[in-house]
Specification:
The chain contains nine helices and five strands, in the order βαααααββαββααα. It is mainly alpha-helical.
Length: 216
């Protein structure tokens, strides 16, 4: 597998997606990676062309166990408040599978730095190298402040914000953002439906306007 250092947004995105497959985040639906087949679907959906898959076939139960361990490791890195710790951890992820960095022209003829994974490395090791490269790129280009907890008060997700503006707030914007907007809308409707003090006392707003009260 060959990973372009400049394309760090890919690895950072995979880190986000992997961490947020856990039951800690998916409270209502449960863990996404329930078996080896689910891991295969995850890799396919996110277009992750690992050499190990092409060489050894679809993910196995052993691959799943290793990826689940990697998921927790990546989560721990994202939760760290130390840039040095994140850098050390990301470097260690890359070193598991990468043989060497090398300089090569891309499709446009521009020089780019790449890493290539070694022969015979496991699926989880390749995935670790991709994620590690992404996190290193984010630290170098954007800073650790782009690694964040989801802003939704009901979500334990995390994400790496690689957007140009850097204003992303949710780990899964289409899900967490919409849920929070719906909750706020319902709260406003509920507050608007509450009876006023005048209504509770038996006097209508029109009666009070003219100085009348309702006799009981």
């Amino acid at each position: 597998m060959k990973v372009n250092f400049s394309a760090y947004t890919w690895g950072a995105g995979v880190a986000t997606e992997l961490v947020n497959t856990s039951a800690l985040v998916r409270r209502s639906t449960g863990d996404v990676l329930v078996d080896a087949a689910a891991l295969g679907r995850f890799l396919a959906e996110h277009d992750i062309p690992l050499d190990a898959w092409a060489r050894a076939g679809p993910p196995t139960a052993a691959d799943l166990a290793q990826v689940l361990a990697l998921r927790q490791e990546v989560r721990d890195l994202l939760e760290s408040t130390s840039e040095d710790h994140v850098a050390d951890g990301a470097n260690a992820l890359v070193e598991r599978a990468a043989v060497r960095p090398f300089l090569e022209r891309d499709a446009d003829g521009d020089w780019q730095w790449y890493i290539v994974t070694g022969p015979g490395v496991s699926l989880a090791e390749e995935l670790a190298a991709l994620i590690g490269t992404g996190l290193l790129g984010v630290l170098r280009a954007l800073g650790s402040q782009r690694i964040r907890h989801c802003a939704s008060p009901t979500c334990d997700g995390m994400f790496v914000d690689t957007s140009k503006a850097g204003r992303r707030r949710y780990c899964m914007p289409d899900l967490c953002g919409n849920r929070l907007n719906v909750a706020k809308h319902r709260a406003r409707r509920h507050a608007g439906a509450q009876p006023s003090s005048s209504t509770v006392s038996g006097a209508s707003p029109r009666d009070e306007e003219h100085g009348h009260t309702t006799e009981t």
